[in-house]
Design brief:
The structure holds 2 protein chains of 2 kinds.
Chain A: H1 3-40, H2 45-66, H3 76-93, H4 98-120, H5 125-145, H6 147-150, H7 175-197, H8 199-209, H9 211-216, H10 221-247, H11 257-270, H12 275-295, H13 300-314, H14 318-334
Helix pairs in contact in A: 1-7, 2-7, 2-10, 2-11, 2-12, 3-4, 3-10, 4-10, 7-10, 8-10, 11-12, 11-14, 12-13, 12-14
Chain B: E1 5-14, E2 17-27, E3 32-36, H1 43-51, E4 58-63, E5 66-67, H2 73-78, E6 81-83, H3 96-107, H4 122-134, H5 150-163, E7 168-172, H6 183-191, E8 198-202, H7 206-212, E9 215-220, E10 223-228, H8 230-233, H9 237-253
Parallel strand pairs in B: 3-8, 3-9, 6-7, 7-8
Antiparallel strand pairs in B: 1-2, 1-4, 4-5, 9-10
Helix pairs in contact in B: 3-4, 3-5, 4-5, 5-6
The chains are: A mainly alpha, B alpha/beta.
Amino acid sequence: MTMATMNDALAGAQGKGRKRGRDLAGLAVILGLAVLGYLLFPNNLALLTRMTAIALLVLSLDLVTGYCGVATLGHAALFGSGAYASGIAAVHFGITDPLLMLACGILGGAVAGLVCGIVILRAHGLPQLVLSIALIHLFHEFANKASAWTGGSDGLAGIAPDPLLGYFEFDLWGRTAYVLGIILLAVVFALLRLIVRSPFGMLCRGVKEDPIRIRAMGASPKLALMKMYVISGAVAGAGGTLNAISTQVVGLDSLSFTLSAESLVMLVLGGTGSLFGALTGTIVFMFFEDIVSAANPFHWLTMVGALLIAVVLFAPKGLYGTVAGLAARRRGAGR
Amino acid sequence: MSTIFEVRSLKRAFGGLAVTNDVSLAMAPGDRVALIGPNGAGKTTFVNLVTGNLTPDSGDVLIGGESVTRIDATGRVRRGLVRSFQVTRLFQEMTSAEHVALAVLQRDGRAGRMFGHFLAMPEVMAEVAGLLGKLGLSELMHRRVSEIAYGQQRLLEIAVALALKPRVLLLDEPAAGVPQSDTGRIEQALADLPADLAVLMIEHDMDLVFRFAKRVIVLAAGTIIFDGSPLDVTRDARVREAYLGSYANAGHAA
């Protein structure tokens, strides 16, 4: 082995160590922010829990859009399906154990992911985007019409989850829901880090860049994308369930085009193709929305629009992507 | 002599134009065959028919005696028919090691694994290091494709193909676009290909063809007009006519 190859082998090993370090740092950041949020906003835990649920949706969107290059404006279909699956399980079938509800929501989201994947992955580019918009409207309308099951436009009310593990009641301040949400987010984040770095994650990155090359390696791009869509559905479904448990109601807005578009905005804001980017985008967008809408209830959307334009024009890789890029360049220059 | 790869009276027409017209050929393990022909001879269509990206109107493609005519492109790769691309198709944001590892994992049916990292899989890394070393790319192991020279990318393309352990290798102009100074390394890589591998090379560069191929097939207007030794190809009247004819036409157009 020459000196250069040894150096490169070392660089590879260091890269691996650095990534593992970043995994732990990521988890530490999530838990640290969670504690900080709890201490700073003890009366606003509902917002923080909602933020956690939406973070799961944005992470889920990042899997298919950021890592696989699928264009979609209908990703709330997966989130809403999870929410309704767990809500219907609780209201109509008496499955009120929160962890069982979570299982129902994950399954519902995964099935919705499979259905959406089958339809959306038939097209590419603009037609794909249009298909995704059509799908979210279909899901929305279906939930609206099936009011015997979903409560229609009144929403599905009367979700009363049992105490978590038979011990922790879902209290009025939303503490239990918040803790459940943070644990869920941390577990999902750790699992997704594993998946995006695995051989499967590498295959998906390949599919995003050049599906023809992947086919020439003997792998089916479509199969890889379908698998990722189902995983994405499970993650979004977990987010939907968290929202259903914490608010105890599922509304049609969870299956809306607006929520789909907003989640895409959050992802672009934070930076696509990075789990940290998805989290950053969610936190920044939702805090910004909360603060600005309170400060100026009439023009807050204008300001959200201005923020988005600024980010897209001046930091096209998103907030996290740009900062990470700068840090990497400084490290490179320092070497 | 056993046959590893066979094409039987392959036909494909676009509109009324027969682009591949009754093409047949057979190759044994270890064969080094060059497929040449003037522009528009139907070489690209032939490659697409063989690899499964186009369906023939009639005829058969066989790998190791098994008909793969009705098997799609990925299935043919898994049966040992691997191609390289005329213009490199590599993943700009991935490192050399990632490319080869992905091919190795895919070949072993492990590319769908959702845990672990290839850097921590010693048997995969041993193969990656071996292949990159053989092609002189060891130093670029952890470099992204966007950071390495085009000639090296062409070598990486060969490494990816070899990582799939092909039985039949289709090289589509392996030296295209490579600066003169780097063609030597490509030629060396071609000379070092496994001895039992059947190689079909599509190439324009006649010097490379004559140095590499033991057998030359000339395609013109969708049919094989010559199949024989490199020594005889330049003397063949029909080959000269096909090439000179096309040059003469080009002269008129200009």
